[in-house]
Here is the input.
Amino acid sequence: MAIIAPDLGIDLGTSNTLVYVRKKGILINEPTLLVVQSGGKRVTRAIGRDASVLVGRTPAGDVVVRPMQDGRIRDYDMAETLLKYFIRKAIGASHIVKPRAVITIPCRVSKVDRRVITEAAVAAGIRRNGVELIEKPFASAYGSDLRVFSPEGTLVVDSGGGTTEIALITHGGYVATRSLATGGISMDMAIVEYLRHDYNMVIGDRKAEDIKIDWGAALPYKEERKIVVSGRDLITGLPQTAEITSTKVYEALQAPCRQILQGIRSVLDKAPPELAADVLRKGVFLMGGASQLHGLDHFLAAELGLPVTVAKEPMLCAAMGVGRLVDEPSNLPFVARLSATQDESE
Here is the structure.
């Protein structure tokens, strides 16, 4: 039995949670989901990947719970249960000294939200004085080996499941940040609403995500494709199918894509001339699961007139960033001070 638990890096996202164990790498990469029995005392039926299989297929009395919303804890008890499960799955439970953890958070979260995340982590088994909270765009940039501690400006866009985090970073700190409640889940909901409005048909979250992954695009396809979608008729309540085109899916996704575009522009508007020149030369760095939407990089590049680079493994960037801070903690005190300063300036 190990006496001291290894330190952890946790990317606690709205859609997925990743756990990096010191010197071992990412050992957990599962959906931030639980299936619980509703009622007076909620009994957990499944967590993570096991819960994902049951989405849209739960029996009566069971509900799917997303404890995170827009990068913040919405359901404290379920967030604690999920964290405890993932931590034990990653490192076990038989340690005398509890682990420390570096956890990602959105930009510009309130002190209350920070305290809630910290308390949930402590309740889940993290050492009370061992929780450090790091903004997600910084973690993603650090995990992508970008020069975040250099005097040059670096514009990072981390588009995840619940939020899109945009930050202009220089000297290891922030010049401007923006946090948008727009991400992969917003894109799924845009597809759901399109089918509801145009076809009077309801589809599930999983079906909407599958359509987004297979046919979604930020730019129209050169050749239009037809898709057969199955769902439930809003009027009759009976199963039905509808044939839609890839162009209609593209049109449904324009609103969230343009929200991301406007967020980037608002951050660029605050950039000093010298850092703006750095961004003009280096471009925009795109990370996070939603950055994999087909054509999003080309859409942003065309609208901004800047080069846009997508990370090699966009979904893993933030987890690799907190993992680097766990493996090589010499920069952690400096980064943590910057994070605290950002909080105080709000």
Notes: The radius of gyration is 21 Å. DSSP finds twelve helices and 18 strands in the chain.
